[in-house]
């Protein structure tokens, strides 16, 4: 009995030691003001592509960040800037990256156009690696007009289960889905014959994101004003890519003791696992400048019915882990 108790005590000490040495990412993930992060995994490496958070006239480039364990992040500076895009002048926002045939395509918004009479919208950059450098793929915007009331910003590239690519985008409380050509040189009609199909759910403002889990389409978006404390993330679930998407509820929002304006997110799934992470931006307590936003990460979990559990924002972030 004495030997058994000694073994239990030793085991508790070992477990305690392992727990105390567990490394966490911490929040924010990396220094600097950044927003609208898209997180993904390429070749066993975590990548985050954010907006540089600054006045519009200073938003003329993108940085990217990579990590092999979610805790140590390397910054890749100016993977793309307005010097590589003749028609882009300012407000380069919300990069979304997809790999296709050995190339990496970065979709972005530029110029914050307010009408069809202005130059700007959603463009595409192309590179040989995730860290770029990216060059303009089309020499013009892919989408440069308002369709169904949607401002051409906040683009997210979505790959369906059959390998087809779609672009889900839109500001001004309207969201569209379009089908991309295989070579990404333009769009083509959806199955119903339309080019721009509106899929706007109740409460939608901007920042769409979609993923598939157990055959269901999870559509997520940001609500509220991006400069205010009420900015948050909500979601819907559907059996179809094009909906209908009936709002389930909020999944991420502010904690007044930590930060406000928690929104414009993306989701990372560890390949081959059921481990999900939500990557988002928030404004730390004490910061009143609208551009003082930082990139953070939390674990995202589901209940037995497949609904997303509410996510609490933290200062600790998530434990270190590999993507392989």
Question: Your description of this structure?
Answer:
The structure is a single chain. The radius of gyration is 20 Å and the shape is globular. The protein has one helix at residues 2-21, and strands at residues 34-42, 45-52, 61-67, 74-81, 93-100, 103-110, 121-127, 135-136, 156-159, 165-169, 176-180, 187-188, 197-198, 206-213, 216-223, 232-238, 246-252, 259-269, 276-284, 294-300. It contains one helix and 20 strands. It is mainly β. The longest helix has 20 residues, at 2-21.
Provide a brief overview of the structure.
With 324 residues, the protein is mainly beta. 6% of the residues lie in helices and 41% in strands. The termini are far apart.
- Span of the ends, CA to CA: 43 Å
Helical fraction equals: under 10%
Low-confidence stretches: 4-20
**What's the rounded overall pLDDT mean?**
94
Q: The biggest beta sheet, please?
A: 5 strands, antiparallel
Structural class: mainly beta
β-sheet strand percentage = 35-45%
Helix run count: 1
Number of strands: 20
Give the helices and strands as they follow along the chain: HEEEEEEEEEEEEEEEEEEEE
Radius of gyration: 20 Å
- Basic shape: globular
């Amino acid at each position: 009995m004495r030997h058994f108790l000694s073994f239990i005590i030793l085991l508790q000490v070992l477990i305690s030691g392992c727990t105390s040495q567990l490394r966490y990412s911490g929040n924010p993930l990396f220094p600097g003001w950044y927003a609208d992060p898209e997180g993904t995994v390429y070749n066993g490496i975590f990548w985050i592509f954010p907006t540089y958070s600054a006045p519009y006239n200073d938003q003329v480039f993108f940085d990217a960040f990579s990590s092999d364990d979610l805790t140590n992040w390397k910054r890749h500076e100016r993977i793309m800037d307005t010097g590589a895009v003749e028609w882009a002048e300012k407000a380069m926002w919300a990069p979304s990256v997809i790999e296709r045939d050995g190339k990496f395509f970065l979709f972005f918004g530029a110029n914050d156009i307010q009408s069809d009479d202005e130059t700007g919208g959603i463009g595409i950059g192309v590179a040989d690696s995730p860290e770029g450098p990216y060059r303009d793929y089309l020499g013009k915007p892919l989408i440069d007009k308002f369709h169904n009331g949607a401002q051409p910003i906040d683009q997210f590239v979505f790959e369906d289960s059959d390998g087809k690519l779609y672009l889900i985008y839109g500001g001004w409380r309207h969201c569209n889905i379009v089908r991309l050509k295989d070579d990404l040189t333009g769009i083509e009609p959806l199955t119903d014959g339309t080019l721009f199909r509106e899929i706007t759910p109740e409460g939608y403002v901007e920042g769409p994101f979609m993923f598939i889990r157990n055959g269901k389409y999870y559509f997520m978006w940001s609500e509220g004003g991006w400069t205010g404390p009420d900015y948050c993330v909500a979601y819907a679930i559907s059996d179809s890519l094009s909906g209908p998407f009936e709002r389930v509820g909020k999944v991420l929002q502010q904690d007044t003791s930590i930060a406000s304006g928690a929104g414009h997110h993306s989701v990372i799934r560890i390949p081959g696992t059921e481990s999900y992470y939500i990557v988002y931006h928030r404004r730390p307590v004490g910061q009143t400048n609208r551009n003082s936003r930082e990139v953070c990460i939390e674990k995202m979990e589901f209940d037995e019915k497949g609904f997303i559990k509410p996510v609490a924002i933290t200062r600790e972030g998530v434990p270190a882990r590999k993507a392989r």
